[in-house]
Amino acid sequence: MLKVLKFGGTSVGTLDRIQNVAEIIKNIKDDGHDVIAVVSAMSGETNKLIEYATHFSKSAMPHEMDMLLSSGERVTSALLSIALNEQGYPTTSMSGRQAGIVTDNAHTKARIESIDTTNMKQAISEGKTIIVAGFQGISQDNGRVSTLGRGGSDLTAVAIAGAIQADVCEIYTDVDGIYTTDPRIEPKAKKLDKISYDEMLELASLGAKVLQNRSVEMAKKLNVNLVSRSSFTPEVEGTLITKEENIMEKPLVSGIALDKNQVRVGMYGVTDRPGIASAIFTALADANINVDMIVQTVGVDGKTDLDFTIPTTDWEICKEVMQKFEEDAENIDYNEAICKVSIVGVGMKSHTGVASKAFTALANENINIRIISTSEIKISMIVEEKYAELAVRALHEAYNLDQ
Ligand code: ADP
Ligand code: ASP
Ligand code: MG
């Protein structure tokens, strides 16, 4: 089999941890498989590099940020390659460029356009284990290094697995699979054997950072057999992320996600006229701001209130954009002390009473819900950030996820 393995930051966080990864790869090689390993930067490294840049500038040129941040993964790929080679396993490390990964020019959040697998196929045919520096490629027009957004090594692994038609893509991290919620918040969370691409995509998009959302989207598109498992307990089988039809028993709710990186923007006393929402949200879209939940109240006396949420990282740009609309509202305020809790499950499509159970669970804890939004397989609620963990645990219990 050809296996693509990905090792995240904590899995390669120290030299001992890198040796542990070498052992995992050696065992898989000894079983007769070909291996392409994608590695993250050592844990904390990417954040440290961002801090270094911020010391000089709060708005560093995106292509220079990419030059800087891509170095973290290159360090790990070379170290792991050196370690394995020393232990008698022929290897070659590859940067994103050498692995043939071409992206668009959206530096710091580039999208993969294509992967030329020639180099990787050549190395495999020579019996080498390939160690790819995750999270990076080269941008097609300017030829500079690009990075794929935070958590982007997951995407590197899935995209390579899809392009080279690997038999499996295993994402090794510090938990042994996908749980009903973050086990660090709710120790009673249960590991799932399988979860559908769509549910995993919602959980990842709604804050469960165990897999990067774009990697799940790509796995679904390219039909990649995706497994989440632990480098700390490699003997334990992980969670398979697969097509919905491969899952026999469909629970009503599969998981709960929490996202603390949200800001609520409130516009009060907005002049209620045709085109106002269009003007505001077009301006935000033009600034590449990812607006999430939007609520407009019924207008009274020609005035209305408008609430929406954005990621904390877009807050500064959002404030700039909103300056244009100061005349249109009596007051604009920002609240960062909020979070979004979401319940996700394909079973919701065919059942009633799912939402009311969530609202009751939060009411019983005296937690006020500020905004609600629903789609076919999810319900999201904005609550005060200080209630984040309590809300997750209350919902987890309400749907009996610990059983
Ligand atoms: P890596 O550095 O390996 O990429 P991450 O820190 O990005 O790892 O993701 C792993 C973390 O995701 C876990 O330590 C866990 O706290 C968190 N997590 C959030 N939601 C879940 C979930 N539903 N199941 C498992 N882990 C989760
Ligand atoms: N090192 C990058 C990050 O911390 C990419 C990754 O680990 O996936 O976001
Ligand atoms: Mg990650």
Low-confidence region ranges:
none
Helix % is: 25-40%
CATH topology of the domain at 2-174: Carbamate kinase
* CATH architecture descriptor name of the domain at 2-174: 3-Layer(aba) Sandwich
Number of strands: 20
Describe the structure.
With 403 residues, the chain is of the alpha/beta class. The protein has a domain at 2-174: Carbamate kinase (3-Layer(aba) Sandwich). It is built from eleven helices and 20 strands. It has helices spanning 15-30, 45-56, 62-86, 118-125, 153-163, 197-205, 213-222, 276-286, 315-322, 354-364, 388-398; strands at 2-7, 34-39, 91-94, 101-103, 112-115, 129-133, 136-139, 145-147, 168-173, 194-196, 226-230, 239-242, 255-259, 262-271, 294-296, 303-311, 331-335, 338-344, 371-375, 378-384. The strands form four sheets. Strands 3-6-2-1-9-11-12-10 form an eight-stranded mixed beta sheet, with helices on both faces. Strands 5-4-7-8 form a four-stranded mixed beta sheet. Strands 13-18-20-19 form a four-stranded antiparallel beta sheet, sandwiched between helices. A hairpin with an 8-residue loop joins strand 4 and strand 5 (112-115). The radius of gyration is 23 Å and the shape is globular. It starts with a strand and ends in a 5-residue tail after the last helix. The mean pLDDT is 95. Magnesium ion is lined by residues 8, 151, 154, 209. Aspartic acid binds next to helix 5.
